Amino acid sequence: MDLEDKDYPHIPNEILFNRYRGGDLKAFNELLKRMKGLIYTLIMSYVHNHAQADEIFQEVFFKVCKNKDQFRESVSFKSWLVTITKNTCIDQLRRKKHAYKMDSLDGHNDDDRPALSEKIATPDPTPDENLAIQIENKELEDLLKQLPAEQSETFYLKVVMEMTFEEIGTSMDCSSNTAKSRYRYALDTLRGIVKRKKLLEKAV
Fold it and tell me: How many Cα atoms are found within 13 Å in the side-chain-facing hemisphere of 136?
């Protein structure tokens, strides 16, 4: 069945990718349109350098095209893409001999990067979440450095990549319940730090 351009934005990622595997280039263009912002943001969390990020971005989608037949329909496309991106970033950093820890989200000021503090908001934020939203982007990223690596990465995939816990579990090779626990631990720790910060400010 032929699809019109207006139909593509409503098709799930997995179906689009399968259509691309069958030769539909419009399907790939739609996936690229959907994912390029999130993937570029994830890459920037590793390298903090636009030239290097551009290089990795191209390599990621080269690998996607090269390995398209390895995609399993039982796995979400976003999870598969995130895994490829993470592995490509790590390989690139190793080749360039850069030291990087997963629990370190460097606090560079970059107007092209979305504020993590803006991503914490929910449709009905709790008072604790409202406190977190008030923190500036750099402050929040500095706080994330205090989290264990697995919690920091889980938090990042959840609030920035907007992945489900099932997708995070697949990407991090753990169960969805484990991913959910790590996220809750991370959020609880951040909330506690925010509360203490606010109390100290009032005491001054």
Answer: 6
Residue ranges of alpha helices (H) inside the chain are 13-21, 25-47, 50-66, 77-95, 116-119, 127-133, 137-144, 149-159, 165-172, 176-203
Are 125 and 74 contained in the same domain?
A: no
Specify the number of domains making up the chain.
2
pLDDT at 200: 62
Is the domain of 140 the same as that of 66? no
Question: Are residue 4 and residue 30 in the same domain, yes or no?
Answer: yes
Mean pLDDT over 26-55 rounds to 86
Q: How far is CA 151 from CA 31, 67, 72, 89, 161, in A?
A: 28, 29, 27, 19, 15
Q: Could you read off the pLDDT of 59-79 as tens digits, one per residue?
A: 999 999 999 998 887 778 988
Please indicate, yes or no, whether residues 2 and 96 belong to a single structural domain of this protein: yes
